[in-house]
Amino acid sequence: MRITKMIRLACLVLALMMLLTSCEIFQRKKSFDTKQPTVSDKEPPEPSVSDDDNKEEISVQTPEELLDSLRMFDFEGTAIMIAVPENAYLLADSTMSTVLDVIEKKYNGKITLSEYSKGHMYYGVKSMVEKVGVSEYFADLLILSATEYFRFKDADLLERLETLPFMNPNDDCFDAAMTELFSDDTGTYGIVGDGSQLFKSQIVLYVNFELLAAVDMKFDGYAMAERGTWDMQALCKVLAAYESVAGKTALASSVSSEMISHLTTALAQQGSFEDLSIELHGADGRTAFMMGRIPFLIGTVGDMELMTKARDSYGMLPVPYTENGEYKTFYDMDSVYVFCIPKGSSRSDCTGALLEAYHTASKYLPYQYFTDNLIEKYARQEGTIKMIAMIGKEGYPLPHKIEE
After folding, report:
1. Could you write out the DSSP letters of every residue in 263-305?
2. Which helix (H) or strand (E) holds 246?
3. Smaller CB count within 10 Å for the chain: N or C?
């Protein structure tokens, strides 16, 4: 299949300003004897989450208040069916269903979320659009991973969003730079906005400091990141040091091997570096990290929700890519969610209004996720909190080759 546009935009810098606020963290430091091998001259911070006093409060509007800024729309009891990929990050907590419940009540509609496998969703939409056999009406709104989007687009199964009443793809609630990836000369066919929860698909590097300490390695990645010295050379140095002492691989990945290939290609722009040796990918890689068998994991912010039973305390660092002194965020396109309308949808007026309402009402999801989940539930080290605020500034989308 042709994915020329995706490849052509591989190095597009996204102006994604996250609502993750920067927290002032007061690190506790200790002095102790230097042991070999040494990668940094400071001990990592102790594994404790920051106190409430360290969180910067902002004024957060509720979904109800945000919807009051939109024109009123009456669904008149219309049922809206939304198809979502099974096990999607969007469904990992109740934030999406909470926003949809508010919209359902305010707009007098009935909104249903249904999970489908990739194959079921594709052939269900294809059958509906092409009216093949005894096809049934499948869905009014599709939520697709960025990689799956191109499969649907190439098969001409998606509606041009400019045709929808009550919705403007240029509204502030939509991410213009990211949405550009899902547009061509004929129009926009997929849209990304505040409700896509992009912050969960940011690629980061998890570190098991306890595993490093077990082989007498000192590594203060937090300080390196703040100083701007956390780069590919520094990563390769610590990986080589661990493998030399422990005699086993130091790095795993929870994202696909294809995504890792695109990531290393992008990182090559930063300068020469050694090839990253990764043997485990996906759930196997995440499990190995959780069980304390491997000290580094390339994963996503959303992985933190899946690692609540991790054996050791761990921290998070940005991908070691800087530009003009700023760390760039990479996205796992398998978990970037794009909102689309199947071609020929009979409820385009309602779905257009729903798209605008959902993304408008989701404006503060990043901030609430940051404070309520990452700080209160998942983060195990103070330094991680500050790293997340540093990570979510600007980013690169990573292309993903779709299998023929």
Report:
1. HHHHHGGG---PPP-----HHHHHHHHHTTS-SEEEEEGGGGG
2. helix 232-246
3. C
